[in-house]
Amino acid sequence: GVLLVSLYLECSSGLHSEFNVGLMRAVTDYLVAAGRPFILGADWQVPPDELMASQWPSALRAQVVAPSPTAVSCVGGYASSLIDYFLVSESLVPAVMGCEVIDDCFTAPHRPVEIRLSGNARSRMIQRLRGPRALPYTLPVGCARTPPDWQPVVDLAAKDASTDEAFTAWV
Question: In the chain, which ranges are continuous DSSP H helix?
Fold first, then answer.
């Protein structure tokens, strides 16, 4: 299945405020733990290019899907902006047919934004192999073990001793 997630970031504080970073970390943890394709619709409080520059989409293996840059999703006071759009898993991006602001809806200050997906998305999907992620390198706690001494085995092998003698000498 596909996860559909909605997110509303704190107004007027940008992506890097403590509160918004905490929300984005919680969403990241949830999406990674779920391990499924997702569509994340949000009031990002920033334009799409600023979200792309944050590297958060690439960390989630997702792409920003937004209406035309000239579209307006939020009208208020003296300004209008495009701050409502989607973050879509890379595996679902080929199925995206379009994304638009619905202009004839009389809501304020935000206008709805729709995303359209192809009905035959599975036929467009291709399997892509990826290498495993690197394991963290951490040393075990405590003193390092001393490796066994192989010299007695080497000496016996040089004398053409039997395997039993070499094993007894080593143990």
Answer: 18-34, 48-53, 56-59, 121-124, 151-158, 163-170
- Tell me the pLDDT tens digit for each residue of 128-166: 778 888 877 777 677 777 877 878 777 777 776 566 776
Rounded to whole angstroms, the Cα distance separating 93 from 86 reads: 11
Give me the long-range contacts of 52-56 (CB less than 8 A, separation at least 24).
Answer: 54/15, 56/15, 56/24, 56/28
- Rounded Cα distance between 155 and 148, Å, is 15
Residues paired with 87 in a beta bridge:
40, 64
The whole-angstrom separation of Cα 171 and Cα 153 is 10
pTM above 0.70, yes or no: no
Its sign, for the CA torsion 122, 125, 130, 134, is negative
Question: Which run of H or of E encompasses 85?
Answer: strand 84-89
Token pair in block for residue 123 = 């036929």
Q: Locate 34 and state its tokens.
A: 């779920």
Distance CA 47, CA 53 (A): 10
